[in-house]
Amino acid sequence: MSLLGYVVVFFLFCCSYALNLTALFLPKWLTRIIPKPSYSETNYGLFKLCSSLTGECRPFPGPSDCTQEERFCQLW
User: Fold this and answer.
1) How many domains does the chain have?
2) What is the DSSP string of 8-35?
3) pLDDT in tens, 20-61
4) 50 FRET partner, CA 20 to 30 A, in 14, 33, 39, 59?
5) How many whole angstroms separate alpha carbon 62 and alpha carbon 58?
6) What pLDDT does 62 receive?
7) Are 46 and 24 in contact (CB under 8 A)?
8) What span, in angstroms and rounded, lies between the C-alpha atoms of 43 and 34?
């Protein structure tokens, strides 16, 4: 493999690594928007859940999420 091939593979690896780290730390894997009667936006990330109603983020899944559905936390 030529030097150009190694440079391209290294560049692709660095981009992939940066995107993976970004996806881990940003809580926007899934967004639920409720437009009416009052606007509400909830963002689910890999480790936290953020709500526009409270303006706070909390760990996800939490203990209350684990009791509602069998094995949800184990699979998460």
Assistant:
1) 1
2) HHHHHHHHHHHHHHHHHHSS-SEEEEE-
3) 888 887 778 888 898 888 888 999 888 888 998 888 988 887
4) 14
5) 8
6) 77
7) yes
8) 12
Q: d(Cα 67, Cα 10) in Å, to the nearest integer?
A: 44
Scan for tokens 């909830």, then name that residue. Answer: 42
Alpha-carbon distance 52 to 27, whole Å?
Answer: 13
Q: Look up residue 53 and give its amino acid.
A: L
> What one-character DSSP code corresponds to residue 49?
E
The confidence band for 3, taking pLDDT boundaries of 50, 70 and 90, is very high
Tokens of 19: 């995107």
Residue 23 belongs to domain spanning: 3-75
Tell me the two tokens of residue 66: 């684990």
Backbone φ and ψ of 39, nearest 5°: -65, 135
